[in-house]
Design a protein that fits this description.
This protein is mainly α. It contains nine helices and no strands. It is globular.
């Protein structure tokens, strides 16, 4: 009986480790978008064009993957990063990620867009990792979101907003708004809402 119990614990731990490694891989890609504001600063039009082109290429590659035709590298990365809910389905996350970044860059001024994009890169990314590794206290009515993830999101967005704007009060407001959005059960659509809304809120409050 004890051996069976230990075996079950071992299986659960192994499953949890695999899930965390997949999430770490996925969010590492997510956080690489933190370089986008730098590219936008030096070459705005080219960066937007490349992002749109990458988004379109991904849609084609993912459509082919769903139909059984793998595109080298792209399909492998998508499959490795896909969550359980995305198995055998079109993985929407990269599309909403690119769309959120492009819309933020188009709608808002440079510093406001920087806040929105960095909040998406680090706020959403670190919230997920903290929730997976430290998330024991679940926030009610949020479909499994955790207190640890929400706190990580708040701190990350506060830091990036202060880094860009050097305004403590503004950073607290933006971080609080970002944390509230992250708590919503939006699935992949938080990639759209977080950067666009927080970028707009920053531009309005900071009068950039």
């Amino acid at each position: 009986m004890k051996q069976i119990f230990c075996a079950k614990i071992g299986i659960e731990l192994k499953k949890h480790l695999i899930d965390f490694r997949k999430e770490l891989f996925r969010k590492s890609i997510h956080m690489c978008t933190a370089f986008v504001p730098l590219f936008l600063h030096f070459s705005y039009a080219l960066t937007v064009a490349l992002l749109c082109g990458a988004g379109c290429f991904y849609v084609v590659a993912e459509s082919l993957r769903i139909r059984g035709t793998d595109v080298p590298l792209v399909s492998a990365v998508t499959a490795a990063a896909a969550r359980k809910r995305d198995e055998n389905r079109f993985v929407l996350g990269p599309v909403t990620l690119v769309a959120g970044i492009v819309l933020t860059a188009l709608f808002w001024k440079e510093r406001a867009a920087q806040v929105g994009i960095l909040a998406l890169a680090f706020g959403d990314g670190l919230a997920s990792l903290a929730g997976k590794s430290l998330g024991h206290a679940v926030v009610p009515f949020t479909h499994g979101k955790t207190a640890a993830g929400s706190l990580a999101c708040f701190l990350a967005i506060f830091c990036v907003t202060f880094f860009v704007c050097a305004d403590t009060a503004l950073s607290l407001v933006i971080a609080g708004a970002g944390m509230c959005i992250e708590l919503l059960p939006l699935k992949d659509y938080d990639n759209l809402l977080i950067p666009v809304f927080l970028g707009g809120l920053t531009q309005y409050l900071a009068k950039l």
